[in-house]
Amino acid sequence: MKQRLFMYLFIFTLLLVIFQFVNSKSIIEGYDQKLTNYMEANKKLKDSIRLMEDNVVSDLYTFKFDTNEDAMIYWENQGFKISEFVPFIKDELMNLNIYETEDHPLVPYASMTGEKMLIDQIRMLNHKWIIASFTDGEYWGEMLLSYDIEAIKNQKQLKFEVIKAILYQPN
């Protein structure tokens, strides 16, 4: 009787071990499949992010004076050094923020808060156009400017002209 009891226990234990092995194997295979799926999805997402980053980088260089070789050559042919030219244009625009009159010399909108309208951001597009944003602290807008350097009485003078401007409404 003792031998049969040990034999039944041995068979029961053997069946239990086989059941555990098969069950564990299916669980591990399920986890491996999920991990493989996650790794493939992760790779696709990384590729998408890289592609989007490449597009963003190329967009940053589009319509920018610093990456527009034709625009730089235009002003180099006029006798300007590009390394000094861009800061000169931006400084001249920012210097227009210092004014004593009620209205800004370039911003076509009057301040509605009692503060001065000031140009706060500038992006040179090419050798003729600039986009600038302006604000009085509450209201803001953007404008497209043309610029040129004219020779007046043997002296070069920078001239800005507002092509179009827009004022946004606060929320």
Please give a structural write-up.
- This protein is of the alpha+beta class.
- It has two domains: 62 residues; 104 residues, no CATH class.
- 49% of the residues lie in helices and 24% in strands.
- It is built from three helices and four strands; from the N terminus they run αααββββ.
- A four-stranded antiparallel sheet has the order 1-2-3-4, covered by helices on one side.
- A hairpin with a 4-residue loop joins strand 2 and strand 3.
- The longest helix is centred in the first third of the chain and has 60 residues.
- The radius of gyration is 35 Å and the shape is elongated.
- The chain starts with a helix and ends with a strand.
- The model has no long low-confidence stretch (mean pLDDT 88).
